[in-house]
Amino acid sequence: MAKDVRCEVNSCRFWAEENHCKAESIFVTMHSRKEPSKSEETDCGTFEVK
């Protein structure tokens, strides 16, 4: 499991200094029903606005 999750979205309540994510777990979703083949085709389902 990743110990150092990075995130640049500082409007998320889980964002911490130096672009660290302080969420206990991360949920990644797909943009569409097609299986993603690159990161741009996914979204962070863990995001919550500050």
TrEMBL record:
<feature type="domain" description="DUF1540">
    <location>
        <begin position="5"/>
        <end position="47"/>
    </location>
</feature>
<dbReference type="InterPro" id="IPR011437">
    <property type="entry name" value="DUF1540"/>
</dbReference>
<protein>
    <submittedName>
        <fullName>DUF1540 domain-containing protein</fullName>
    </submittedName>
</protein>
<dbReference type="Pfam" id="PF07561">
    <property type="entry name" value="DUF1540"/>
</dbReference>
